[in-house]
Amino acid sequence: MPEPTPTHTEAPYALSGPYPTPASHSEAPCSLNIKLRVAGGDVQITGRGQTPAEAVANVLETKALLTAALTAPTAPTAPTPRPSRTQRLGVLLACGTEKAVAQGDLARLTRLVKAYELVVRGHVVANPDGGGALVQSQAAGATTHYRVVGRRCECADYTRHVEAEQSYLCKHGLAYLLVQRLDAQEAADGS
User: Which of 108, 145, 176, 177 is the most exposed place for a label (fewest CB within 10 A)?
Assistant: First the structure.
């Protein structure tokens, strides 16, 4: 079988062949992994897409979100009696990041960063039918919402992993967990 010829040559990520035939994969056909040093440990970020450019964009966006979440905030000019919701979310993300790195669960780290993005963009809303939440898909222009109740989600990622790993949380479940913890913190201090 002839080797595929690259069709994407957009700088600065120009590719050159020859390429091996990609393995059959149930997810996006292009995948890019990078390794970063975070809190004294190595972290791997994976970006996936239909094209190499999409995979690179996904990695860069994930890296930017992770970097922003872990960047030390500047000293406030006036004391703030209570942290904002965004500040609380950043602390929760940093705590989750440290735990995932300590446990060597880099896949969970990637899902946690994506969950952070879902929360920041307001894609997690209370389920109007009661119980749990509806979490919007991250796909561009998506209108799909996944129902999350407790640790269970309707998405394919959760379904694919839950039997092998009972404590598995997909990015939608992690987003809902972040919102629950934010709400509990705010209720506890009257925010």
Answer: 145
